[in-house]
Design goal:
77 residues; single chain; KH_sf_prok-type; 3 strands; GMP Synthetase, Chain A, domain 3; three-stranded mixed sheet
Length: 77
Amino acid sequence: MEKELVAYVAQALVDNPEAVEVAVIEGEKSTILELRVAPDDIGKVIGKHGRIAKSLRTILSAASTKSGKRVVLEILD
């Protein structure tokens, strides 16, 4: 569920939605989501002073409270 949420929001933010990729790495107590976008769109996903990235992480933590696992979002370039 979290993977689809991140992909949906990222695709809405970028100019090249086809290049959005979200990889999931499952751990015992946490899940890592690795977000990749086109090099030109990385700034749109991070935002000024990291505001959009922080908002994405806040949404993720709220969405993951049901599962009881901690979800970490990494934005890769």
